[in-house]
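Look over what follows to help learners.
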Amino acid sequence: MIPGNAPVVILKEGTKRDSGRRATHNNIAAAKAIAEAVRSTLGPKGMDKMLVDSMGDVVITNDGVTILKEVEVEHPAAKMIVEIAKTQDSECGDGTTTAVILAGELLKNAEELLEKGVHPTAISNGYRRAAGESLKLLEKIARPISKNDTSTLKAIAITSMTGKSSETNADFLADLTVKSIKMVSESSGKQVSVDRDNIKIQKKQGVSISDTELVSGIIMDKEPVHTGMPTKVSNAKVALIDAPLEIKKTEIESKIQINDPSQIQAFLDQEEASIKKMVDQINKTKANVLICQKGIDDLAQHYLAKYGIMAIRRAKKSDIEALAKATGGRVVSNLDSISTNDLGFAGLVEVRKIGEDDMTFVTDCKNPKAVSILVRGGSEHVIDEIERNLDDAIGVVALVVKDGKIVTGGGAVEIELALKLRKYAPRVGGREQMAFESFAQAVEVVPSTLAENAGLDVIDTLMGLRKAHTQKGRNPHAGLDAYTGKVVNMKSRNVVEPLRVKTQALSSATDVATMILRIDDVIASKQPEGPPPDGGDGMGGMPPGMM
């Protein structure tokens, strides 16, 4: 205080500040709210959410990361929870809901410890130690799998799709997923790498989900530029070009002064000769399909059609790169240097009518390292959700092919992990032991949520699972069958998941929970005042009296 007891103001007027216990509780409440929002989507009996944005667009999904991306979250702690869902999605492709509800449960249990007077730092240290021990235990629990074990890879894809819109066609879609992964996987010694981006998913509304197909090549939402060009080419030699087939504009401003009418014709002849030379360069390589990233001049189209070359212009850069991987061709930037060695091969390039649109299929490629899946379905919302489900399935199968390790699903691995953590907890001692035990309890949120979403009694289910994992002749693969409500051997049921999905979810959830726990002061600046961005009065141009 300064003389006269006037308070010292160090923050800008209008700044909002929460500190101490209040800040911690607010942050935990926000994180728990996010976890509750997606909790009901977990498992075979999980429900879907309908999300309507400000433009009226509708998304129907039970994919955790999609829900959290679509919802406009304001609270900073809640945004941190959304971030772990995004990380889980980019790293694993699946397990986003698991990561979010685990973070929510860790914070909920931490809140109870805070009420008992345990310091946030002690809870954070206990959680970190428990997470480290969990990762070691998961490595021991996991079992290896060969990348050639097709039946197990299919089972992983089916487990990923269970409880989603694609469940009725899960077997068929899982088959497509495994085939596509095997096509694009590349070996380097003992290491196998799979780039998920090499599997392109194209969507077209119409017919049914069972008409979804895998193409050993690339599908483009394009058609030939000239009606005189062939629409079907067998044994295609494909030229991939990212330079325009037209006269370039000069970099600097320039003028041409013509004094004689004959000079106009000479100028036009020169332009035509330049374009014809470009087309001749391509024709000389014996290419019969041309795919160009830039524009193709009308005159060039005429000459290409005359030579019987199918040409497509303004192809996306991603499509050109994928075509190079699929056909084995090289992308050429300078037409003067194009040669036969730069061409790719495709058994068939044809234009097909899909729904109301013409699409070009580049198929039957030799050993393609980029493939496409054409998703079909009765409505736009259906095919959007099938695409998300396929993306998750591709992610988990790619992980297993790369890492070669799996764990049992259905809550079995979480129960086993929780029991082993509880057994280890007395070695920790002190207040950190309380946090360690809270962590073990939080891990059980997965089987308890599976039971809750299936309409089963949570306590009875957890007791049944613990009994199966601890009694004489115990079964470490005992998990919950959400359809019958019974505890069954999930290994024999082939309900399996990649190890990395579990380890990533545990690591991310622990990191964000400990970070939120250590925050004891939230200082939020005042929002800037002033007219809305449109410069109006904030009523969006409404007539007076129409508020």
Observations:
- The domain at 219-251+272-362 is CATH 3.50.7.10 (GroEL).
